[in-house]
Amino acid sequence: MRPKKLNYILSSISSLKGVGPKLEQIINKLGIYKNIHFLWNIPNNILERKFYENIHDAEINSLVTLNLKIIKHEPSRFKRQPYKIKCICGDTNIDLIYFNARHPMMRQMLPTNENKLISGKLEYFRNTFQITHPNNVTDLKNNKIIKSKEAIYSLTNGLNQKIMNKLTHQILNNLPNFNEWIETKILNKYRFKPWSEAVINLHNPSDDNIKNKNLLRRRLAFDELLSHQLAIGIMRNFNQKKKGLKITSGNKIINKFYNNLEFKLTNSQNNVIKEIINDLESSNQMIRLLQGDVGSGKTIVALISMIKVFESNLQSALMVPTTILAFQHYENILNLLKNSKINVIILTGRDKGRERKDKLDKIENGHADIIIGTHALIQDSVIFKNLGLAVIDEQHRFGVYQRMVFNHKNHKPNILVMSATPIPRTLTLAAYGDMKESKLVEKPLGRKPIITSSLSLKKENQLIERIKAKIINSMSKFYWVCPLIEESEELDLKAAEERYKILKKYFKEKVLLMHGRLSELEKEQIMSKFKNEDYKILVSTTVIEVGVDIPSATTIIIEHAERFGLAQLHQLRGRVGRNDIQSYCILLHKENIGEIAKKRIEIMKQTDDGFEIAEEDLKIRGPGEILGKKQSGSPSFYVADLSFDNDLLEDAKIMVENILEKNPKLENIQGENLRNLLYLQERDAAILTLTAG
Ligand code: ADP
Ligand code: MG
Prior knowledge:
Layout: H1 7-10, H2 21-28, H3 35-40, E1 45-48, E2 50-52, E3 63-74, E4 83-89, E5 92-98, H4 103-109, E6 115-125, E7 128-132, E8 136-138, E9 149-152, H5 161-172, H6 184-190, H7 195-203, H8 207-211, H9 213-241, H10 252-260, H11 267-281, E10 287-292, H12 298-310, E11 315-319, H13 323-336, E12 344-347, H14 353-365, E13 370-373, E14 387-392, H15 405-408, E15 414-419, H16 425-432, E16 436-440, E17 451-456, H17 460-472, E18 477-481, H18 489-507, E19 511-514, H19 520-532, E20 537-540, E21 553-559, H20 566-573, E22 584-589, H21 595-606, H22 610-621, H23 623-627, H24 629-632, H25 646-662, H26 668-680, H27 684-692
Parallel strand pairs: 2-3, 5-7, 10-15, 10-16, 11-13, 11-14, 12-13, 14-15, 17-22, 18-20, 18-21, 19-20, 21-22
Antiparallel strand pairs: 1-9, 3-4, 3-6, 4-5, 6-7, 6-8
Helix pairs in contact: 7-9, 9-25, 9-27, 11-12, 21-22
The chain binds adenosine-5'-diphosphate and magnesium ion (MG).
The site of magnesium ion (MG) has 5 residues, from helix 12.
């Protein structure tokens, strides 16, 4: 049961004094629904206004508070004219100016011959001091109410700072007391203040905590990350109690496969395969994220895992985002398995009628062992006889939770998610906290790093001459990628068509064009022509970004590289460097480019390491954009900032591991304190799970 002392802080803001249905709706727009959300709504600035006895001490255009005597009202006589109130400060004249003032109210608020404390921006206009729209007017007795520093919050239509401050303080005056839930070690490490002190100080700016604003915020950020990791840990403990499918420890078929393989696996591949096989042989369900840069050889790792599963007479599914990729994997895998009894089929949206029915039957009666496909695999009509492993490739194209769809079918298969966009650790922790991770950190032996250079578009002709020279007597093929233009496929296509026309002039029948407007079938035909026939240049929009594997293509030219993000440039570059011939990436850019674009191009030239590039990308773009908040299902935090608080996330994770190892049910006083935190952070589901487990 939730302790009663939490009721107030977790109740709806409609219970606050001064909040009616209309104001409630307006405040909701800021993401504030419950009282506690006011506390997470951290001021984005601080307003400082100084009190001056003598108006001549005050600086013009600064925020001030003055003691004014009201002398005379001069109401506006027509619409455009301001309402003027003559006042004096000591013996100096000063005017208060209001536009669109409501006359009776003005006289009530500022009665003549009385003194008031008035604050606002001090201006000097036509030889007179004035304050336009004072932002605070109070009686002298209340001089504490006009604080010299005030928190400034983000607003939305219909709200003002005064309302926000008042409501926030209403809550601050009613904070419950909590015992500390953070370990002393961590409190000391970061010099964190106790929870209530951090909250109160954040919303009550003073000189002291302007300096420490980040320290106070980080305390609350740690709470947020701690509760998030704790909730994930509790869920995982609960899930692991449910048994997964057990895969037996036979290795006969795998060993035979190894012996027939034309190349040697890298150490990295071997290590990852070991990790996966361990998971498969254990009785728990595997949920593992395999990260490997483009070209690091993830497919073979997936295939060996699937063979392992076949060895226990279970099926495997491999789901990829596009039909082209599905066919590419299908052909590769068919080829690699040509001497085995393993039945491989492919299921995509292209299968219709009789053919589709046949395939569905094979999946249902178990004649198909490895099923490769697109989204088509997770439709209701697909019924697996006994699915032991689901592999999801190029996962960032699917929503994170799509992988879970396989769980809803009546099995609980092992799940391997493969991502070619290396995701910085901070983000995997945050988004996929419940997954184990494997990484392929080396490229297959003999791979040379891709040589990346940049070139101004002005020198385009030189580049074309170089390509001409190179094409004459070599097998090399070229990708020429045309840029995204304002997210419009139509304009994209136009740019690509132009480029195609230009290159055709030089290279005649050796050029192909591919773009997003073609059907999947047409795209696939073009790829296959480019791969197998005597074509040399493929002009394309970014549709070749994902997964395409044509080893004989050794140079990629990216036109208007300044328009691409780092992750995308890296993905595109990964289309080359797929065999032991030296590969090149040429970043064509317009003559003058901005600082950020310049930096991106520099990073591309400096490193080939996808993990490093992802870290840089995180710095440049921030986490929201990388994971694409909504579709990725990444948690959005109120206070924590993942491009800044990674250290906190790491420590939160360690703290949670320790706690759950010793006290998995969150018992005794430590458990009680942590449950309070979970409630505060609205992680009630985790607490329910504790009770259910
Ligand atoms: P990605 O990780 O981008 O999916 P792939 O699995 O498509 O990479 O592998 C890229 C290429 O490298 C493929 O042509 C594959 O056959 C080849 N490959 C994979 N592992 C090795 C290895 N250990 N030695 C040599 N070539 C390999
Ligand atoms: Mg791949």
